[in-house]
Design brief:
Order of helices and strands: HHHEEEEHEEEE
Structural class: alpha+beta
Strand order of the largest sheet: 2-3-4
Number of helices: 4
Helix content: 25-40%
Protein backbone atom coordinates (compact mmCIF):
# COMPACT_ATOMS: atom_id res chain seq x y z
CA UNK A 1 0.00 0.00 0.00
CA UNK A 2 2.87 2.35 0.82
CA UNK A 3 4.55 1.66 -2.54
CA UNK A 4 1.28 2.38 -4.37
CA UNK A 5 0.62 5.65 -2.55
CA UNK A 6 4.12 7.11 -2.49
CA UNK A 7 3.97 7.66 -6.27
CA UNK A 8 1.10 10.16 -5.87
CA UNK A 9 1.30 11.36 -2.25
CA UNK A 10 3.89 12.04 0.39
CA UNK A 11 3.95 13.44 3.94
CA UNK A 12 6.18 13.14 6.99
CA UNK A 13 5.70 9.77 8.71
CA UNK A 14 3.72 8.40 5.75
CA UNK A 15 5.30 4.92 5.94
CA UNK A 16 4.49 4.64 9.66
CA UNK A 17 0.92 5.88 9.12
CA UNK A 18 0.31 3.38 6.31
CA UNK A 19 1.72 0.52 8.41
CA UNK A 20 -0.50 1.51 11.35
CA UNK A 21 -3.60 1.74 9.11
CA UNK A 22 -2.91 -1.69 7.55
CA UNK A 23 -2.38 -3.27 11.00
CA UNK A 24 -5.85 -2.08 12.12
CA UNK A 25 -7.75 -2.59 8.86
CA UNK A 26 -10.10 -5.60 9.00
CA UNK A 27 -10.02 -6.24 5.23
CA UNK A 28 -6.22 -5.96 5.19
CA UNK A 29 -5.94 -8.55 7.96
CA UNK A 30 -8.01 -11.01 5.94
CA UNK A 31 -6.20 -10.42 2.63
CA UNK A 32 -2.56 -9.77 3.48
CA UNK A 33 -0.38 -12.69 4.48
CA UNK A 34 2.00 -11.84 7.28
CA UNK A 35 5.62 -12.25 6.31
CA UNK A 36 6.62 -14.06 9.46
CA UNK A 37 7.92 -17.46 10.34
CA UNK A 38 5.33 -20.20 10.64
CA UNK A 39 3.46 -20.18 13.90
CA UNK A 40 3.69 -23.09 16.32
CA UNK A 41 6.62 -25.36 17.04
CA UNK A 42 6.72 -28.81 15.46
CA UNK A 43 4.83 -31.47 17.42
CA UNK A 44 6.34 -34.87 16.51
CA UNK A 45 4.19 -37.97 16.54
CA UNK A 46 4.63 -40.50 19.32
CA UNK A 47 6.75 -43.51 18.47
CA UNK A 48 4.28 -46.40 18.41
CA UNK A 49 4.36 -48.95 21.18
CA UNK A 50 5.63 -52.31 20.06
CA UNK A 51 3.39 -55.26 20.73
CA UNK A 52 6.19 -57.37 22.27
CA UNK A 53 6.63 -54.88 25.10
CA UNK A 54 3.97 -56.81 27.00
CA UNK A 55 5.54 -60.23 27.30
CA UNK A 56 4.55 -62.81 29.82
CA UNK A 57 6.81 -65.76 30.58
CA UNK A 58 5.62 -69.02 32.05
CA UNK A 59 7.09 -72.31 33.15
CA UNK A 60 5.03 -75.18 31.82
CA UNK A 61 5.58 -78.41 33.76
CA UNK A 62 4.06 -81.88 33.75
CA UNK A 63 4.82 -82.55 30.08
CA UNK A 64 6.03 -85.92 28.83
CA UNK A 65 9.72 -86.33 29.69
CA UNK A 66 12.23 -85.43 27.01
CA UNK A 67 15.34 -87.51 26.15
CA UNK A 68 17.23 -85.42 28.70
CA UNK A 69 14.65 -86.26 31.37
CA UNK A 70 13.02 -82.82 31.58
CA UNK A 71 9.28 -82.44 31.90
CA UNK A 72 8.99 -78.63 31.79
CA UNK A 73 9.70 -75.74 29.42
CA UNK A 74 10.11 -71.99 29.77
CA UNK A 75 7.81 -70.34 27.26
CA UNK A 76 7.61 -66.60 26.61
CA UNK A 77 4.15 -65.69 25.39
CA UNK A 78 3.45 -62.39 23.66
CA UNK A 79 0.20 -60.79 22.63
CA UNK A 80 -0.07 -60.97 18.86
CA UNK A 81 -3.44 -59.28 18.42
CA UNK A 82 -6.20 -58.47 20.86
CA UNK A 83 -7.06 -61.70 22.65
CA UNK A 84 -4.57 -63.88 20.71
CA UNK A 85 -1.34 -65.32 22.04
CA UNK A 86 1.66 -66.84 20.29
CA UNK A 87 4.46 -69.00 21.70
CA UNK A 88 8.03 -68.03 20.80
CA UNK A 89 11.43 -69.38 21.78
CA UNK A 90 13.26 -67.14 24.32
CA UNK A 91 16.27 -66.42 22.10
CA UNK A 92 14.04 -65.18 19.28
CA UNK A 93 12.27 -62.83 21.70
CA UNK A 94 15.63 -61.48 22.98
CA UNK A 95 16.93 -60.85 19.44
CA UNK A 96 13.69 -59.18 18.41
CA UNK A 97 13.61 -56.97 21.52
CA UNK A 98 17.19 -55.86 20.84
CA UNK A 99 16.43 -54.98 17.20
CA UNK A 100 13.23 -53.13 18.08
CA UNK A 101 15.08 -51.13 20.75
CA UNK A 102 17.64 -50.03 18.14
CA UNK A 103 14.89 -49.06 15.67
CA UNK A 104 13.05 -47.02 18.33
CA UNK A 105 16.26 -45.20 19.31
CA UNK A 106 16.97 -44.34 15.65
CA UNK A 107 13.38 -43.11 15.16
CA UNK A 108 13.66 -40.92 18.26
CA UNK A 109 16.99 -39.47 17.07
CA UNK A 110 15.54 -38.74 13.62
CA UNK A 111 12.48 -37.04 15.15
CA UNK A 112 14.66 -34.91 17.44
CA UNK A 113 16.86 -33.89 14.51
CA UNK A 114 13.85 -32.99 12.36
CA UNK A 115 12.23 -31.01 15.21
CA UNK A 116 15.39 -28.99 15.87
CA UNK A 117 15.67 -28.04 12.18
CA UNK A 118 11.98 -27.22 11.78
CA UNK A 119 11.78 -25.17 14.96
CA UNK A 120 14.48 -22.85 13.57
CA UNK A 121 11.95 -21.79 10.89
CA UNK A 122 9.03 -21.48 13.29
CA UNK A 123 7.98 -19.28 16.18
CA UNK A 124 6.12 -20.31 19.32
CA UNK A 125 2.45 -19.30 19.27
CA UNK A 126 -0.06 -19.61 22.05
CA UNK A 127 -3.55 -18.19 22.36
CA UNK A 128 -5.65 -17.71 25.47
CA UNK A 129 -9.34 -18.46 25.95
CA UNK A 130 -11.40 -15.38 25.12
CA UNK A 131 -8.95 -13.97 22.57
CA UNK A 132 -9.91 -13.67 18.92
CA UNK A 133 -8.03 -15.29 16.07
CA UNK A 134 -8.19 -15.47 12.30
CA UNK A 135 -8.38 -18.83 10.56
CA UNK A 136 -6.32 -19.31 7.40
CA UNK A 137 -7.82 -21.35 4.62
CA UNK A 138 -6.70 -22.25 1.13
CA UNK A 139 -9.41 -21.66 -1.46
CA UNK A 140 -9.62 -24.08 -4.37
CA UNK A 141 -8.03 -22.63 -7.51
CA UNK A 142 -10.62 -21.15 -9.81
CA UNK A 143 -13.29 -20.94 -7.10
CA UNK A 144 -14.16 -17.39 -6.08
CA UNK A 145 -14.67 -17.04 -2.33
CA UNK A 146 -16.74 -14.21 -0.82
CA UNK A 147 -17.60 -12.77 -4.25
CA UNK A 148 -14.12 -11.28 -4.65
CA UNK A 149 -11.52 -12.38 -7.13
CA UNK A 150 -7.83 -11.85 -7.58
CA UNK A 151 -5.60 -9.87 -5.26
CA UNK A 152 -8.28 -8.95 -2.71
CA UNK A 153 -9.61 -12.49 -2.29
CA UNK A 154 -9.31 -13.10 1.47
CA UNK A 155 -7.27 -16.07 2.68
CA UNK A 156 -8.22 -15.55 6.35
CA UNK A 157 -11.63 -15.74 7.99
CA UNK A 158 -12.58 -14.22 11.25
CA UNK A 159 -11.89 -13.05 13.80
CA UNK A 160 -13.39 -15.89 15.86
CA UNK A 161 -13.41 -16.17 19.64
CA UNK A 162 -11.34 -18.96 21.20
CA UNK A 163 -13.58 -21.07 23.43
CA UNK A 164 -11.06 -23.58 24.78
CA UNK A 165 -7.58 -24.98 24.31
CA UNK A 166 -7.84 -28.60 23.17
CA UNK A 167 -4.15 -29.45 22.72
CA UNK A 168 -0.79 -27.74 22.26
CA UNK A 169 -1.76 -26.25 18.89
CA UNK A 170 -5.47 -27.08 18.76
CA UNK A 171 -8.23 -24.71 19.84
CA UNK A 172 -12.03 -24.81 19.77
CA UNK A 173 -13.44 -21.68 18.12
CA UNK A 174 -16.89 -20.10 18.14
CA UNK A 175 -17.66 -20.45 14.44
CA UNK A 176 -20.88 -19.08 12.96
CA UNK A 177 -23.42 -21.58 11.61
CA UNK A 178 -22.82 -20.54 7.98
CA UNK A 179 -19.18 -21.71 8.13
CA UNK A 180 -18.96 -25.41 7.34
Amino acid sequence: MYQDHKRKFWWNGMKRDVAEFVSKCQVCKQVKAEHQRLGGLLQPLEIPEWKLEHISMDFVVGLPKSRQGQDGIWSPLYWDEVGEKAVVRPEIVQITIYKVTIVREKLKAAQDRQKSWEDLKRRPVEFNVGEKAYVKFSPVKGVVQFRKAGKLNPCYMGPFEILEKVDTLAYRLALPSNVS
